[in-house]
Specification:
Blueprint (H helix, E strand, L loop, with lengths): L21 H32 L1 H11 L2 H28 L6 H25 L1
Helix pairs in contact: 1-2, 1-3, 3-4
Length: about 130
């Protein structure tokens, strides 16, 4: 029979076992940005559809996208795109067993974060 008297032992590792690290943060953000890019995509597609529909509808869509809220969403989506791309390159390197050492993985996490912010700023300045 199964031992129902297990005492105070945890059934599986819990949060006390894991220590939050930068590589953990970038892994979580990679998933979040992948899903979050959909919001920016929906707004841009809506803007293009409004442009093809007519001038009145386009004025509404353009007003939303050029408002402070729309700009925040678009710049956030731009950062998410750059972050997802940079972190995707890091994952490709991991797939060929490059950069899996703990210290190098931590360093590349910092590089991904800094590079994504710099590329976002550079894109906003150029465009």
């Amino acid at each position: 029979m199964a031992d129902v008297n297990r005492g105070n032992r945890p059934l599986s590792p819990h949060l006390s076992v894991y220590h939050f690290s930068l590589t953990m943060f970038t892994s979580i953000m990679h998933r979040i940005t992948g899903v979050g890019l959909t919001l920016g995509l929906v707004l841009v597609v809506w803007w293009f559809l409004a442009a093809s529909t007519g001038p009145e509808y386009f004025e509404t869509a353009n007003a939303v996208l050029t408002s402070w809220f729309g700009i925040v969403i678009l710049v956030g989506s731009l950062w998410a795109l750059w972050f997802h791309a940079c972190n995707g390159i890091r994952h490709l390197l991991w797939d060929v067993i490059i950069g899996l050492e703990k210290q190098l993985a931590q360093s590349t996490s910092v590089v991904v974060l800094v590079l994504s912010v710099l590329l976002t700023i550079l894109t906003v300045v150029i465009v």
